[in-house]
Design brief:
The protein is mainly α. The chain contains 17 helices and no strands. Helix 5 runs antiparallel to helix 15 and helix 7 runs antiparallel to helix 8.
Length: 409
């Protein structure tokens, strides 16, 4: 249910509505507008990189995943609602609110992922992760559908984007708040608190993080996969953050067109996450990820080649299938390769890798568009390089060895 609740944020704010609104309206389609958007995301992810491993270690030491998750949820809901205050020319305000809302979202994403090893048996990590991701896309669908109804009514009354986009931010924040309640009412914290209290907890948290990094050689396959994540997630995060911008700037989509497109993509993403969750436990984690990465490569080529909406729609739906499956598979593999007693800590490292990729990929895209005077086709083609690197690294993983190292630890 938490995957259901928080997916509306990424779907509406990062992927479908606010990103294109920021570039076209808030920043006035300036040459640097796309780079400004990707820079805001980069700053938020940099903050998460600094704090996530320590939050994970702290959560393990105090069995505080649920309490920290509640705090990050409140932060994301409040700052998402505050995005409604941005208007034409409010670049600094929009920038700051995107940084803060995305920081709290990403921190919560790491914390909820750390519950996975407590909720699923070893042989069911892929399935349970797949259920979460698929239900998450249903949540994104519900939030985006509510926004579509609101936008359609507003446009029928002659409202402009500057008038109806703020309302979608309030809708997104409200659904997130309400849909997250089952998590806080029903989910139990099964972890057992460690030693120490007060200021000593911070010292222990940093100490555990230092120990994890120092002994990283024990987990060579987990470390290799985290490096792999940085590269292939750079491509994924670029598509997620720039999809609506590409659709509007290159394909000429309106806000309503883009919302409908992302709605359909969420359906294919939910199906992809669910189906590949079943497949992953049968054919193996590495084969599943390699298969989805080849799908991402094909997606990039199709989007680059598309001259009309038909081919672009095919590429977008392939994004859905690959997005749900690759995200679910990656989360499950981290859980499989992590020492059980340090799940929060190692999922903090997973979050660090994903957030580093969320800086690398979108900023690369933004720089390419700025340097090339707005050539989004070139930027999407460059994005494909990250998937090639990811395939090359993941193919060298020895999952059985990595699992043994985790259990021996």
């Amino acid at each position: 249910m938490y995957d259901f609740a928080n997916s509306g944020y990424t779907t509406v704010v990062i992927t479908a509505v606010f990103n294109a609104y920021f570039v076209a309206e808030v920043a006035g389609n300036a040459p640097w507008a796309t780079f400004a958007w990707t820079s805001a995301l980069a700053v938020s992810y940099a903050l998460i990189i600094v704090t996530a491993p320590v939050l994970g270690a702290y959560a393990d030491a105090r069995a505080a995943k649920k309490r920290l998750l509640a705090a990050t949820t409140v932060g994301c809901v409040l700052f998402t609602a505050a995005l409604a205050l941005t208007d034409r020319g409010d670049v600094a305000l929009g920038f700051a609110l995107v940084v803060l809302s995305n920081f709290f979202f990403g921190s919560g994403e790491n914390l909820v992922a750390a519950f996975l090893p407590e909720l699923a048996r070893e042989d069911a990590l892929g399935r349970v992760s797949g259920w979460g991701w698929s239900l998450g896309y249903v949540g994104g669908l519900v939030t985006l559908g509510a926004c579509l109804v609101y936008v359609s009514v507003a446009q029928a009354h002659g409202a402009s984007a500057a008038e109806f986009v703020p309302g979608t931010m309030v809708i997104t924040a409200a659904i997130f708040a309400v849909a997250s309640l089952p998590t806080f009412l029903l989910l139990r914290e099964r972890a057992v608190p460690g030693a120490a209290a007060g200021a000593g907890i911070v010292r222990i948290a940093f100490g555990r993080l230092k120990q994890t990094l120092y002994h990283a050689h024990q987990y060579i396959d987990l470390r290799r996969f985290l490096v792999c994540l940085v590269f292939y997630q750079a491509g994924i995060q670029t598509v997620v953050a720039l999809a609506a911008i590409y659709a509007q700037q290159v394909m000429g989509f309106t806000t309503r067109d883009t919302i409908v497109l992302i709605l359909v993509v969420n359906i294919t993403a939910a199906l992809g996450a669910f189906l590949f969750g079943q497949v992953q436990d049968r054919i193996g984690h590495v084969r599943t990820i390699v298969l989805t990465l080849f799908g991402w490569l094909l997606t990039v080529v199709l989007a680059w080649a598309a001259q009309g909406p038909a081919l672009f729609w095919i590429a977008a739906n392939l994004v859905g299938v690959c997005l749900g499956s690759s995200q679910s598979a990656g989360r499950a593999l981290v859980g499989y390769l992590s020492p059980p007693a340090r799940s929060g800590e190692f999922f903090g490292l997973w979050g660090l890798a994903v957030k580093l990729s969320s800086i690398l990929g979108p900023v690369t895209y933004g720089l390419v568009t700025w340097i090339s005077a707005g050539d989004h086709r070139l930027a999407i083609l460059v994005t494909g390089v990250y998937f090639v690197i990811g395939i090359a690294i993941v193919a060298r993983l020895d999952v059985a060895r990595g699992r043994r190292a985790a259990l021996e630890a």
